[in-house]
Design goal:
Elements: H1 3-6, H2 10-14, E1 21-26, H3 33-43, E2 48-53, H4 56-61, H5 70-78, E3 85-88, H6 94-101, E4 105-108, H7 118-127, E5 132-135, H8 152-169, H9 174-182, E6 188-193, E7 195-208, E8 215-228, H10 229-238, E9 242-249, H11 253-264, E10 268-273, E11 280-287, E12 290-297, H12 305-318, E13 324-329, H13 337-350, E14 353-358, E15 375-376, H14 380-387, H15 394-405, E16 409-413, E17 419-423, E18 429-433, H16 446-459, H17 464-478, H18 489-499
Parallel strand pairs: 1-2, 1-4, 2-3, 4-5, 6-9, 6-13, 7-11, 9-10, 13-14, 14-15
Antiparallel strand pairs: 7-8, 11-12, 16-17, 17-18
Length: 501
């Protein structure tokens, strides 16, 4: 069915009263993966899926802020294949629409289960007479199934077009982004966090052991990369900014490797040695480019009080000469509450911008410990862990985290679905940026590269959307190679020209 034919009148909607209909409701100002999950779930409940779209008048009444017109929003929703009809609520209330159409189910986001207006309450009472109310945001998932239905070339081509349309919307050109990258050299950033050394072992698969159901591989060769907060610092330096690095390492050969590598890049370092813990070391075994498993050598307890104070003394000494502090916290004990409090104090005293990235894939940590930051960059899972909420929609999660942390900006990372950038304030602005590389060679360093690019961009005067465009390109380059390797500003500039050509 043509998109225009899906935007239906009230009379047309009423004519389908004998059909099995599920009704969804919302403003749908920006279609992002969270909306798709919500709609896909609703579609499983009935034969036809209708969307009741909030009118412009009601958005203005609620001080919603900047938004697309009701016709543009209706067209965007109608363009989705699973949608059978869109009704704009500009001549009828939701309650009256339900009374006339009599849907078998009204599906509302989980947030409506907690807080809802009188209008929604009235609609709920009406729908209960002939159907049911379902509160559901769609299933939370961390894998994109698109490759099951299409090929890499088509999906990446579609993502490139989507990215270009987003840039066009915000008047972002290749020349403008090149100008922003040129400003990187004026920034002075301090990176603090957990140092990791990543070891990649290339293997041949020999088969299953005859003695036990164990996969047997033959080690061919291995290569070590600096990782964790250290690779974030490397990205910052490679992009042209002046970079300082503070971390804790063990008394071992890996710490020497990290120190030598960072010094070669002219990164100013303060590495504090804790003889009671090894430098965090992660070994990944790979066969034909596919990771089999990872073995980690790690201690994740709090650093000693003496080292904690030495780090604080170093922070106090460096604070007057830096523009921003980037916290890359893997929850292995370096970022203590006392250090975090001191960073906040120094930010207030010297006007230093704060950027936070907390990773808790195999350990426990909550990103909402970062208060009043200029940017935090959780994955969807990390955001849900912080709020102890695995059911609400992405929109509710991000908005709640914005308020809870008093952050100026949030990036909600969605893996192969890209990320959504949220700008806080009285009127929240949001934009979904697609992943530009759909089938990555190694996704390990995507978040670190994105964090580095976003932080340096914002420190250099880029808007959130300009920084997000640069970050999307940076992450795309990072996942095209095995292991964490710094992405230079020259390589980034070339890719931006290609993607926006």
């Amino acid at each position: 069915m043509l998109t225009q034919n899906k935007i239906i009148s009230i009379d047309t909607a009423i004519s389908t009263v004998d059909s099995d209909i599920v009704l969804c409701y919302g403003h749908f100002n920006l279609i992002h993966p969270g909306h798709l999950r919500y709609l896909q779930y609703a579609k499983t409940l009935a034969e036809k899926l209708f969307v009741a779209l909030v009118s412009d008048a009601d958005l203005h009444k609620d001080s919603f802020g900047q938004h697309f017109s009701e016709n543009e929003r209706a067209e965007s929703v109608a363009n989705l294949q699973i949608i059978d009809g869109v009704i704009i609520l500009n001549q009828i209330t939701l309650k009256d629409l339900i009374d006339k159409v009599k849907p078998s189910a009204l599906v509302l986001g989980k947030e409506f289960e907690k807080i809802r207006s009188n209008e929604i309450n009235e609609a709920i009472e009406v729908v209960k007479k002939t159907g049911r109310v379902v509160y559901h945001a769609g299933e939370a998932h961390y894998f994109n199934a698109n490759l099951l239905y299409s090929n890499v070339v088509d999906i990446e081509g579609s993502s490139k077009v989507q990215f270009q349309e987003i840039c066009k919307k915000y008047k972002i050109t290749a020349n403008k982004l090149q100008e922003k990258i040129h400003q990187f050299s004026k920034s002075k950033l301090l990176v603090i966090g957990d140092t990791i050394v990543d070891n990649y072992v290339a293997c041949d698969a020999l088969g299953m052991s005859a003695e036990a159901p164990v996969l047997v591989v033959k080690e061919l060769e291995s290569r070590e990369f600096i990782g964790g907060a250290a690779i974030v610092a490397s990205h910052v330096k490679a992009l042209g900014a002046e970079c300082y690095y503070i971390s804790v390492v063990g008394d071992d050969p890996q710490s020497e490797m990290v120190s030598e590598s960072l010094k070669e890049q002219n990164i100013k370092i303060d590495l504090f040695t804790d003889k009671d813990r090894p430098t965090t070391y992660k070994t990944r075994y790979m066969v034909e480019g596919q990771k089999l498993f990872r073995v980690s050598r790690i201690k994740d307890y709090k650093i000693p009080t003496k080292i904690e104070q030495e780090i604080i003394d170093s922070l106090i000494k460096l604070a007057p000469s830096i523009d921003g502090i980037m916290i890359s916290d893997f929850v292995y004990g370096v970022i203590t509450q006392k250090i975090l409090d001191e960073i906040s104090n120094l930010s207030t005293q010297y006007g230093i911008k704060l950027y936070g990235d907390l990773q808790c894939s195999s350990q426990v940590g909550k990103v909402n410990k970062f208060k009043g930051f200029d940017l935090i960059t959780p994955t969807e899972k990390e955001a849900r862990v912080a709020l102890d909420d695995n059911e609400s929609g992405i929109e509710w999660i991000a908005n709640t985290l914005l308020k809870d942390t008093n952050s100026k900006n949030i990036l909600t990372k969605l893996g192969s679905d890209g990320f959504i950038a949220y700008k806080g304030g009285t009127s929240i602005e949001r934009q979904n940026f697609p992943a530009l590389t759909i089938n990555p060679v190694d996704a390990t360093g995507a978040g670190d590269s994105l964090f580095a690019a976003m932080s340096i961009s914002l420190s250099s005067g880029s808007s959130l959307m300009e920084a997000s465009a640069i970050g999307a390109c940076m992450a795309s380059l990072a996942v095209k190679q095995v292991g964490n390797t710094p992405i230079s500003k020259e390589k980034l500039s070339i890719f931006i020209e290609e993607i926006l050509s």
